[in-house]
Amino acid sequence: MRTRTAAIAGTASLAAIALALATPLAASAHVHVDPDRAAVGGYATLTFTVPTESATAGTVKLEVDLPTDTPLGSVSYQPLAGWSTKVVTEKLAKPIKTDDGTVTEAPVTIIWTAEHGVQIAPGQFLQFVISAGAMPDTGSIVLPTHQYYSDGTVVDWDEKTPASGAEPEHPAPTVYIIDAPPVGDVAATPGLLAAQTAVAPATPAAASPAAAATAIGLGISGLVLGAIALVVSVLALTRVTRTRRPRPATAPATPTEGTK
Q: For the chain, how long is the longest CA-to-CA vector?
């Protein structure tokens, strides 16, 4: 009886936890960049989180296209064990005038390649970190990312997210500078709050009230289910204990005076 009750309570608790975590897990299932906001003229440390979604092949190469119409003057990378990194610089078709002078060439692509025997295996993820700047005076910069698998498959994360916030199948990592993120775009990355505090975007963006309410509701539902499961478990165990508790032995009657 105790085993059955504990199993039921455990199942309810797991369901509650899954419900509470469903939103962030779903949102982080694709390649994304963190933080997704920056300030004009500043430098940002950008982290590309790359999960392997294939069940049979691993990720062996990653390419990120950098903007050429609003180029970044400087891009450096954090070394990653087991991976070689290359920053490709090219001459711009149209030179860009900046406060520091005219820019005629700029980084256009950064490429990570896994060494022999190294990969991001199915069910795993890896983070690729760069430092980039100065951030251009523009609404946002789109960073199309190409994920190469060991079986030859290439997944292009290059679709722009519309103003409605409806996420496409393969959204491109995007850093918003002047523009606010699309309506309904709830941050899926843990470093966003820190980025907002440290970078302070030119135009503060508010999360969608509907999306925020949904996330809060799911979290509260998960906590409530967990609490109910705990109460049910405690009550059931208490009932079993009371049922099986032995009754005290009845003391023999004391003979009354005069009885033989």
A: 124
Please report, for the chain, the start and end positions of each structural domain, with discontinuous segments joined by +: 30-205
- C-alpha distances (whole Å) from 164 to each of 29, 37, 208 are 20, 18, 11
* Cβ contacts of 93-96, under 8 Å, gap ≥ 24: 93/68, 96/70, 96/71
Which residue is it, tokens 């891009």?
A: 75
First to last CA, the chain: 50
Assign domain 30-205 to a CATH class: mainly beta
pLDDT in tens, 36-87: 999 999 999 999 999 999 999 999 999 999 999 999 989 999 999 999 999 9
How far apart are alpha carbons 21 and 18 in whole angstroms? Answer: 5
